[in-house]
Amino acid sequence: MNSNTQIKLFKLMERVWLVGVVLGIAGVIYFLITKDNDSALYFFGFFILSSVLYLLRKKQRKRHESYLEQNKK
Length: 73
Known about the structure:
Layout: H1 3-33, H2 37-72
Helix pairs in contact: 1-2
């Protein structure tokens, strides 16, 4: 797999987790409005998990890009 494909795959996975973050926020807001606190707590956990995984993927992509830049020189 070449480096362009790897970076595109990292960006795709980053965006997938970002969509998860948005869905988690939307779920929390919806269930808080409907007064279903147990479901809101579940979606809050999903939001936290998605946020952490998004940040990890972003950090991984940036480290990989800097690694590729160092090897080009």
